[in-house]
């Protein structure tokens, strides 16, 4: 699979929620690790969301109710 920066941005929330399929996860990781644009993007968002998850732990996330 030829992953792109656009796919990284489009699937970033799924990645952070652990919703990517194994094949997508592999392509995502490979692209992010080799792309100088996506590496800081994913690292930055992961750090921000990690903080938010810690603060929002008490409430179920809206996506789970869909
Ligand atoms: Zn990229």
Report on the structure:
The chain is mainly alpha-helical and 66 residues long. It contains three helices and no strands. Helix 1 crosses helix 2. The longest helix is centred in the C-terminal third of the chain and has 18 residues. The protein starts with a helix and ends in an 11-residue tail after the last helix. The mean pLDDT is 84. The structure holds zinc ion (ZN). Zinc ion binds next to helix 1.
Give me the secondary-structure topology.
Layout: H1 5-17, H2 22-34, H3 38-55
Key descriptive features of the protein:
mainly alpha, binds zinc ion, globular, 66 residues
Outline type: globular
How many strands? 0
Largest sheet: none
The N- and C-terminal alpha carbons lie at a distance of 29 Å
Mean pLDDT value = 84
User: Rounded to an integer, what's the Rg over CA atoms?
Assistant: 13 Å
- H-E string: HHH
Structural class: mainly alpha
Instruction: Indicate the percent of residues in helices.
Output: 55-70%
List the ligand species.
Answer: zinc ion
Task: Please state roughly what percent of the residues sit in beta strands, choosing from under 5%, 5-15%, 15-25%, 25-35%, 35-45% or over 45%.
Answer: under 5%
Q: What's the tally of helices?
A: 3
Unreliable stretches = none
């Amino acid at each position: 699979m030829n992953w792109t920066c656009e796919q990284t941005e489009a699937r970033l929330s799924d990645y952070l929620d652990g919703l990517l399929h194994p094949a997508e996860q592999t392509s995502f990781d490979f692209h992010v690790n080799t792309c100088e644009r996506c590496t800081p993007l994913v690292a930055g968002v992961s750090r921000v969301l990690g903080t938010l998850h810690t603060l929002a732990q008490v409430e179920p996330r809206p996506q789970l109710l869909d």
